[in-house]
Design a protein that fits this description.
2 copies of one chain form a homodimer. By secondary structure, chain A is of the alpha/beta class. Chain A has 11 helices and 13 strands. Chain A has helices spanning 16-26, 41-52, 81-87, 92-101, 114-124, 160-176, 199-209, 242-265, 270-277, 306-322, 324-331, and strands at 3-7, 34-39, 66-70, 107-110, 137-140, 147-150, 184-188, 215-220, 229-230, 233-234, 237-239, 287-289, 297-300. In chain A, strands 3-2-1-4-13-12 form a 6-stranded mixed beta sheet, sandwiched between helices. Chain A has a 5-stranded mixed beta sheet with strand order 5-6-11-7-8, with helices on one face. Chain A has a two-stranded antiparallel ribbon with strand order 9-10. In chain A, helix 4 (92-101) packs parallel to helix 5 and helix 8 runs antiparallel to helix 9 (270-277). The mean pLDDT of chain A is 92. Chains A and B meet through helix 8 and helix 9 of A and helix 8 and helix 9 of B.
Chain lengths: 339, 339
Amino acid sequence: MARIALDAMGGDHAPEATVAGALLALGDIDPAHSIQLVGRTEIIRERLETLLTGEFAHAASWRDRLEIIDAPDVIAMHDKPVAAIRSKPNSSMAVGLRLQAAGQSDGFVSAGSTGAQMAASAVILKLHEGLLRPAIPTVLPTSRQPVVLIDSGANVDCSPQELVQFAWLGAIYAEDILGRSAPGIALLNIGEEPEKGSKEVKDAHKLLQQQEALAFRGNCEGRDILSGQNSHGQVDVVVCDGFVGNVLLKFYESVAPLAFEALKRAGVDRRLLERGFKAFDYSETGGAPLLGVRGVSIIAHGSSSARAVKNAIRVALRAVESHMDEHIGRRLPVKVETS
Amino acid sequence: MARIALDAMGGDHAPEATVAGALLALGDIDPAHSIQLVGRTEIIRERLETLLTGEFAHAASWRDRLEIIDAPDVIAMHDKPVAAIRSKPNSSMAVGLRLQAAGQSDGFVSAGSTGAQMAASAVILKLHEGLLRPAIPTVLPTSRQPVVLIDSGANVDCSPQELVQFAWLGAIYAEDILGRSAPGIALLNIGEEPEKGSKEVKDAHKLLQQQEALAFRGNCEGRDILSGQNSHGQVDVVVCDGFVGNVLLKFYESVAPLAFEALKRAGVDRRLLERGFKAFDYSETGGAPLLGVRGVSIIAHGSSSARAVKNAIRVALRAVESHMDEHIGRRLPVKVETS
């Protein structure tokens, strides 16, 4: 009986994809759960009526599991994140997260501006004690088990201490959500040797070696990410700063369409291609939790379809049910010692 | 009538692949050119005899276009680059580069340690005036024209000034080797907005805007690299620090084999796959010139096959013939003004 607040105004295809996504989710999740649609009441209501009298006529009876929460302000993609949170206190993001802080909601999902959601979540939900910054994990398919890349949330200029905290957040995520025990942690670098890399990465390497409760497997290189291992063993979590993570993931997303086209031109059957590339499509995972905040804030892709929104709501439910947030609060070392 | 010095000892498959690569090259390039095999004389001679009396019997008459230059020291992959250059003055790298500095050779090719080659080239050939660091460009296939990613040479902790110099080096390379006029330059970042990114990247953005002789197209994101354009137009050169470039390229190299396997499992015919993936295989390009040194130093992949070595020798010849080195010396702004 969890209540998930959905930012109905966030994302490239809002409110169409968000409202439809909520209806798809209601048909898919346990009937004990409900969804709070946060945004401009008139817009949401109009969209909802259109869908419930058309495409989603079968969903009319789920109406009592849907609540509309008014949030008149709208954050645009070009708004500066922190300023937007301050100057638009009644945006769908701020209202949705405040519901949770007040105990009236259990999780929040948005496909809006990632920067604004990170800022609003940190301000409204607050960070766990000792944490310097929240981070976003992305689960990538590999030739073995899926691997967690953290941070993919565009945290730039990360300190060695922050990289160590990302390792901890990734480890707890890998345990709670992927079911790994003692997940292997690797630091993304230009070589496996500890003396390689930028100043921050070299210092982070030293600090990670001191984290006795983490299974640190040393550095991994770009080529090791998708193999799920380095020369020291299985890698479940790859740690990097958000600049590298962001560039890498956006690059990765662009490879499959290019390969798809090249193979189609080479004469490969489209249906075989679709089947083969399915393993690489992680857009359907829906969203990733912002790790480190006290609560559940799920970041969905800006281009989320209704199906992706539905999946993001499922991710929120899994985060609520796994109590990952509490585990992070309990297990995160309050202070990373500097050497 | 260029003389190319080949590091016969460098690379995972040396001296087999290097000596065989030299013979392949001799059959492929203008007969006026010659090759200098640099390394341990006995080892090279033995290998050469084996090949010339076996697989390469047809090449016996090319012998007078081959010279063996003795270099008794060997640099191992685990040697620290700068220290190795100092402590092993008669390594194949040092000897090969000194030949060029002395005017007895026109270009140098090695598949050995990239770090050692960068250090030795900077020390022995020297850098152009005002240049802070040399850089390595990599040419990537895109859905349009190929694009130059610079730096891919593992230069870490790059200053904004260094990033601007990489942009200049990349532009001249794109003109001389890829034949682009007024190549479009983009700065790799986490968003197109100038205020995004790390401190270094934000400052580099400001400096690049002041380079009136460069066609600066602003930032590009990870997804734009393989599309060869951003919202401001065609992108011929993508500028990033060597940490990001290294991680990105090694990651990219690992994607194709993974996709290949997934598609084979999905039932796609192996030959169609090989044809389709050919466009993504840039290992056969042979090597990339170290840009910014006074001379020609071609960095080949450590895992170079004989065919890749042959191609690297061709790259060296193209660099010699295009006089790219002189163009860099003439056109590089001696000092990048800080704002």
